[in-house]
Amino acid sequence: xxxxxxxxxxxxxxxxxxxxxxxxxxxxxxxxxxxxxxxxxxxxxxxxxxxxxxxxxxxxxxxxxxxxxxxxxxxxxxxxxxxxxxxxxxxxxxxxxxxxxxxxxxxxxxxxxxxxxxxxxxxxxxxxxxxxxxxxxxxxxxxxxxxxxxxxxxxxxxxxxxxxxxxxxxxxxxxxxxxxxxxxxxxxxxxxxxxxxxxxxxxxxxxxxxxxxxxxxxxxxxxxxxxxxxxxxxxxxxxxxxxxxxxxxxxxxxxxxxxxxxxxxxxxxxxxxxxxxxxxxxxxxxxxxxxxxxxxxxxxxxxxxxxxxxxxxxxxxxxxxxxxxxxxxxxxxxxxxxxxxxxxxxxxxxxxxxxxxxxxxxxxxxxxxxxxxxxxxxxxxxxxxxxxxxxxxxxxxxxxxxxxxxxxxxxxxxxxxxxxxxxxxxxxxxxxxxxxxxxxxxxxxxxxxx
Length: 450
Ligand code: PMP
Prior knowledge:
Blueprint: E1 18-22, E2 25-28, E3 33-35, H1 39-42, H2 51-63, H3 75-87, E4 92-98, H4 101-118, E5 126-130, H5 139-143, H6 148-151, E6 162-164, H7 169-172, H8 178-196, E7 201-206, H9 223-233, E8 237-241, E9 265-268, E10 280-285, H10 286-294, H11 309-324, H12 327-348, E11 352-357, E12 362-366, H13 382-392, E13 398-402, E14 409-414, H14 422-449
Parallel strand pairs: 5-6, 5-7, 7-8, 8-9
Antiparallel strand pairs: 1-2, 2-3, 4-10, 9-10, 11-12, 12-14, 13-14
Helix pairs in contact: 2-11, 3-11, 4-10, 8-9, 12-14, 13-14
Bound molecules: 4'-deoxy-4'-aminopyridoxal-5'-phosphate.
4'-deoxy-4'-aminopyridoxal-5'-phosphate binds next to helix 4.
């Protein structure tokens, strides 16, 4: 193999080179076609090679690609912020642009802390989060995440913010009703607030539906109402991490819209530009901005590339495209169709324990025993096997881990572009079924020999 100069995720792994993409398909240099069943990392929401976006990008680069936010504003950034205030629920009217989901959640965290400072409550600086969570890879964002693998090397440098359980009914509801589970989760939040002291807590952060750390784990309709009630009683802000669930992914524009709770601050990224260029945002409510506008008048954060016009114009074109083509609706309709098809497969399958999610955000959890919900041996690395078997068939699926201990759940997420048609869903499901059978044959064969 010729030498590489690129640090890739796994250094001794061979990654095929993608030469081009069109719609839901990607093509590698050997001519192999892949269905982008995960939109990359749940990002390429409108599919690949969309001419309208390419035109908008070219148009903006002919005008100006970069200006520095400390010196100028631009029409592109202003228009994008206006658009987000229109599509975001409630009065989440202010956008702070950054370049990645990690920066968005970390900015949200800093703004939450600043909010309390401006109100004279300077000790409110900790964040409560859930062990099953992923909010990003930078130190602040990782401090809020319970993702063991991503934390362990840096544990000594991180804050121990994540502490409470996330709703995981598939495993928690065995001896309890969903309502009892929700009450338990809300009590945990309350206990944690009382333990740390409400005067030390700035915010509670949660993904509406858990992605990388849960495999599209979906709460009940009441869960967030109960959690928000606790936050309100103890004067704690609520940050929704919509980096994965935002912009149509779950069949609503933002995931929290399913749960009738409006966050004080929202982080969004990924699908916001559908991967055409890096951009993300902390979207802030009028309530949170008010003391800042009346106080220091500066939000203490920012990056060189924040609000750059090239990314802003691209994201604006993507949001307009999503609206024009009713892609949120398509996500709801074809997502329900996809989940139904996977549920049919699950009935036949000996290793699919749970199928969950909303819209085109479908999680599939694998177990060795469907009755006892026993997980596979760690050594078997079942998630990787599933991902590779699908890759072999030309279908990309997103690996996820569920379980606070890193042991209790093995899942993947299906999250194809929101543009996917019913026929393309059928094609995706056919490939998934073949891969599933191949893995089943291999692992069940091994189990019989044990
Ligand atoms: N929050 C959530 C919910 C995510 O899924 C991710 C990315 N998987 C992030 C934050 C971090 O985003 P990024 O990788 O763009 O930094």
